Amino acid sequence: MNRNKLIVDIEYNKLLIYGDDSMKFINIGFGNIVSSSRLIAAVSPESAPIKRIIQDARDNGKLVDATYGRKTRAVIIMDSEHVILSSVQPETVAVRLEEDAEDEN
Questions:
Q1: d(Cα 40, Cα 81) in Å, to the nearest integer?
Q2: For residues 54 and 105, what is the distance between their CA atoms, to the nearest angstrom?
Q3: What is the pLDDT of residues 3-29, one digit of tens each?
Q4: Least buried of 22, 32, 63, 100, by fewest C-beta within 10 Å?
């Protein structure tokens, strides 16, 4: 799979993301976005194995908390071994991923 380098500029409080047209992003809440092509799983944070994954990511500096202090409802696992905490439901992430896939067609 060809990975394009993502270039991000912050200019006048706006996030400008440059890349080719094949790069698609999913909103994971509060204006935070992740690359849909790098997303492996969106799961509930309730089980003990997922809690261990979160703790391991925290220990390894690969945890991103995108909840803005709200309850964690989804744990998003990326192919880079980063773990992202989100306050939207895993089902919502899945629906947004499906909508993204439909937009491609």
A1: 9
A2: 34
A3: 444 444 444 444 455 555 567 899 999
A4: 22
Separation CA 89–CA 94 (nearest Å): 9
In this structure, of 78-82, 87-91, 101-105, the range with the lowest mean pLDDT score is: 101-105
Q: CA geometry: angle at 70 spanning 89 and 42, to 5°?
A: 30
pTM: 0.77
3-state secondary structure the chain: CCCCCCEEEEECCEEEEECCCCCCEEEEECCEEEEHHHEEEEECCCCHHHHHHHHHHHHCCCEEECCCCCCCCEEEEECCCCEEEECCCHHHHHHHHHHHHHHHC
